[in-house]
């Protein structure tokens, strides 16, 4: 028995050392004083990641992704079911627990003692039975993924319940228990958490400049934006996927997108609601004035061919009623 335990401990340490060495080549640092209990292939650790003493990283049969510049303080525990994905520049303070299937966006601030779990115990399946017995009877336990969008601040001791989506830009007050989805750029607090105030409201405009930082909250898709440019008062970003979603408040029947194609590709196609247009190298002004009424919504959904994702620059969006 003692030999088995020593061998298990040795295996954990070897796994940890290999992952730590691989991370070091990308400028990342994982403390030697932590525990990694899954195969090396279960982890995707970005550049300049910092994980301090006392951590547990357990991907199980799933995967753990730590984006570039993620910072995790001491004594945090991350246990994946299928996937735990932590976005770029997110910071996690001491004694945070993340269990199950959880997606966390970029620039999220998580205070000490926060608890996020997509799973829960069965207590009402056959309520006359002990909870542990109910769980043995049911082969599959409840699992509802949690989504924390970009630019969210979770205060100290916050609990997020299974299946909850915390929308972009939200602030959750200390000691709150979040049981329902939130609306973007709002402040919530309490047990259960309730709306306290709005942090920011989207403005109704007809022209959106993609260099203007005030345009950022309208962008609903994942993007890579330059932090230093934002500090200097200018928005600079790159697309992360072929789908680009942008929220507008005003009604419209015509959409005009100014876009620059930096170099030619095999497929220079852009579409809005499935209505395709072709881009030419250089500056383009693309107009959609034939959008059926049944397609019009506040969420504009553009699609780009994969070949041009890294070769375009969005300049300006105009909408007309």
UniProtKB/TrEMBL annotation:
PANTHER family: LIPOPOLYSACCHARIDE BIOSYNTHESIS O-ACETYL TRANSFERASE WBBJ-RELATED, SIALIC ACID SYNTHASE-RELATED
InterPro entries: Hexapep (IPR001451), Hexapeptide_acetyltransf (IPR051159), Trimer_LpxA-like_sf (IPR011004)
One Pfam match: Hexapep
Coiled coil: none
Protein name: Acetyltransferase
Domain of life: Bacteria
Residues annotated as signal peptide: none
Protein species of origin: Kangiella marina
